[in-house]
Amino acid sequence: xxxxxxxxxxxxxxxxxxxxxxxxxxxxxxxxxxxxxxxxxxxxxxxxxxxxxxxxxxxxxxxxxxxxxxxxxxxxxxxxxxxxxxxxxxxxxxxxxxxxxxxxxxxxxxxxxxxxxxxxxxxxxxxxxxxxxxxxxxxxxxxxxxxxxxxxxxxxxxxxxxxxxxxxxxxxxxxxxxxxxxxxxxxxxxxxxxxxxxxxxxxxxxxxxxxxxxxxxxxxxxxxxxxxxxxxxxxxxxxxxxxxxxxxxxxxxxxxxxxxxx
Length: 262
Ligand code: DGL
Prior knowledge:
alpha/beta, Rossmann fold, six-stranded parallel β-sheet, 11 helices, 44% helix, binds D-glutamic acid
């Protein structure tokens, strides 16, 4: 594998660009290829075997693009499919999981909220981590039903989204949470709206930076960090390229977006 091959990143849709941003900020020399499987979003309501099938399809596509490492920028795909991917391919995989541990360690009220998809919250991998911390903490899990669909339409702060969030967060607020874990890579785009709704003492935690740091550690350990400035980031979607383009928090001329019917 060559050092100047790209880092491949996939998600069920546009949300994983929140992880891409952290990777790009930490490793600006690296060439990145991002795949948004928006035509199949949301993954969160699908059965585990379907999530595995879609994750395999995305992996195969990124391998064709020459990916030297694959970042599964989707909690739902990570918690349901990463062990299958790791046992099926030689390429290293980095996954993303809800950051329960840092939230549990920092919580003073010993009550944390987790907002994630049904697929993540019902996975065995999530249950294992959650069990570890539920002895000393009250963990209030809420399925963010409908949120991914709104973000896939480009809606992050509409009255409808605000109403949905207010309703979803209420049980966590009532239970006394002081940390809210965002267990879906789409949700960081809701942070400005969440901040308007949440009591000011509630800290929001997401895993984007941790994923970027882990990607760097693994590339370093395999001597695969590139030394040269690479071409501009490439994004591909099987959904509407305009939505993807609109969500990436960088100037439009600093990346390429293409439609890919895969
Ligand atoms: N970004 C995905 C995640 O982190 C969204 C899942 C979905 O498509 O439902 O779980």
